[in-house]
DNA sequence: AATGAATGAGGCTTCATTCAT
DNA sequence: AATGAATGAAGCCTCATTCAT
């Protein structure tokens, strides 16, 4: 209860996320199989055995990494959509902006690459991620598109597939950053990339003015 | 000299690509580190040791897989672009069509996912892939965009970044197929997906009609 | 802090030499290449993996075996020579006696056979052994011979080559013990062997009395 | 029967010894276990499979190497001893001279090192070598010593052990050449070495005058 | 007789996991 | 709670041996 004991306690409670953070970094960098628990422990500043105090196995650690990666940004965006009143395209931009703040510019940005690389090795985890992130994100975009079509702002389209096409460049931005980006000698400008994506969509989705 | 002696020789020459084909399949499915050479050998119908008659190591096999994945479809597309005379958007569609035939519907479709998952573990291979595939593909799209801007068909844009945005959904189509696709209960319709992508682009790239 | 915690630590420190001892025995018996790490581990009462906690590789273990085999007997003999005051032949006998006590009758006796069998496969190790053992031993014998020649006790001779001839039977005694000795049905009497060697030398080195 | 067919036939008959010669060289250089049959085949200028036309296994090849190494020099020396009429020391010198010509300066010189290194792995081969080479060589030296003692030329001695001491430097000369010799920067002078050995023996074996 | 492609047992090495401290 | 020494299963790779040509 003394102030001295606080850092210790906070430390203890913070441990799991310190460990998953270290694990996420290495899993993204090298892949699940090629990452050694010893390296994760070293990066987190603990010993190998300590990992087993918090996670039953390497696989359990992986699951925790992904589950922790499902941050409440989806819920946030659902709330944003719920109270949005402007144009549908504005909504899409707001959602993207929030995603960019909460995911794209944080360590969680590595999750998509990791999940894609390991989906087939961990089908249940992939399923979990799909249900809790992808499906909800799709629904979110989908309702924005439906809303825009209903109002006449967007042209008619196959919504389900259009969602995939819209999301693809956004995911790819992150995937690229954690894979081939090192091969490019020029820095990619994420802001510009996202802006161009939205520019294309603004015009591409618009109901043709006759 | 006799035709009888051929099968042996033909086998010898055909082996490497039989092996890389098997390896590609498993690398895409499980990742490089999680794939056992024994499984690759089994899939190719040979023994473990046989792999070493053709490749020095697992890593060398990986390199061969990627290098063999650089099929001449790029050159083909360069030729298509060179002799194209219609609208620039038509050119983009032709290039996509050929890519879909030669890559998207073949075993090579797995290469992008594999390369993305392993890029950081094999920087030289990634560099090779970048130089020989990505850079040339970018140049190809880029010249089509420039051509369309020059003719007034396309609106003005930051070409370099727009290329990335345009390519992203195409790459993502393949990446998805070899990763999260298994989580979806509905079949993805690739044709529809590509068509929608092109629809969005057709309208999105068009110079605004006053 | 408690004495109870000691055994673990003591073990940790004692391990390397337990392992090299086991390795020496098997390397001498079967040769480096024909010895399996698993057998070394078994002889030392540990598991295969434990070896790698202390040595990076089989080759590193070999090096350690040799380096540990360079016991300070040479230094001891150098000290003996430095303070010797009797006849030069007496000195040779003292050196031999000490060598016999500290090397010939211990596990280190196997080193010469091992080193000879593997010298060409491990040139750097051989070089190390040569510099730290052989060269110093030669210098030691050499100075005894010079001393004896100077005093008139020994006849004139080509010292460098004579050293080799003198050492040969001593090395051979050990080499034989770890190789062909098993083919003989009679026990070799090392004491007698060494005594006869010295007898031949006593008379063979003596300056002719005219 | 045509002259043209001769080289072929000679070739065929010569094969086994070409193969054992290549094998001896590599066995001596690297040891039995560390030598690959492929390298032996390559050195002999044949393919790996060809070895199995002449030898059942790697071990059989090793046996053949040793057996072929038991050249009739022993028989020769036995004949020399039988017809010798001069001093006993002269006989020892003659035997050594012949050995030096027929073994010491030929490829067979590597046999002792090889046999010593592998004796414990191939006890039957070692036994064979012991019976057919070592025992007979010992008997030869032994009878010369007995002869010299009987005539009063040599002093009294334990013959069996003295033989070992006498032979040791001779064996060591060869063993050294194929092991540690590479560590010395100066060339060893074998002639001088053998001469010094005999000088020591001449004086060392002599019956004390007076 | 000769080849060399193919095999698969076996060894070195790694690393997830356990457990005594 | 934390450590890190120890384990042993498993994978990469080698190479003696076989066999179709």
Characterise this structure.
Four copies of one chain form a homotetramer. Chain A is mainly α and 210 residues long. Chain A folds into two domains: 12-57, Arc Repressor Mutant, subunit A (Orthogonal Bundle), CATH 1.10.10.60; 70-205, Tetracycline Repressor, domain 2. In chain A, 72% of the residues lie in helices and 0% in strands. Chain A has ten helices and no strands. Chain A has helices at residues 5-30, 37-44, 48-54, 58-69, 73-82, 88-104, 111-118, 123-151, 159-177, 190-205. Mean pLDDT of chain A is 93; it is low at 1-10. The interface between A and B is large, with 54 and 54 residues. Chain B binds a DNA duplex (21 and 21 nucleotides) through helix 1 and helix 3.
Structure, briefly:
The structure is a homotetramer of 210-residue chains. Chain A has helices at residues 5-30, 37-44, 48-54, 58-69, 73-82, 88-104, 111-118, 123-151, 159-177, 190-205.
Average pLDDT metric of chain A = 93
Going by CATH, the architecture of the largest domain in chain A would be Orthogonal Bundle
Work out the number of β strands of chain A. 0
Work out the helix count of chain A: 10
N to C succession of SSEs of chain A: HHHHHHHHHH
What shape does the CA trace of chain A take?
elongated
Query: What is CATH's topology name of the largest domain in chain A?
Result: Tetracycline Repressor, domain 2
How far the N terminus sits from the C terminus of chain A, by CA atoms, comes to: 72 Å
Structurally, the number of domains of chain A stands at: 2
In angstroms, what is the radius of gyration of chain A? 20 Å
Largest interface: A-B, 54 and 54 residues
Helix content of chain A: over 70%
What structural class do helix, strand and pairing data of chain A support?
A: mainly alpha
Q: Any idea of the CATH class of the largest domain in chain A? A: Mainly Alpha
Oligomerization: homotetramer
Largest β sheet strand count, sense and barrel closure of chain A: none
Beta-strand content bin of chain A: under 5%
Give the low-pLDDT segments of chain A.
Answer: 1-10
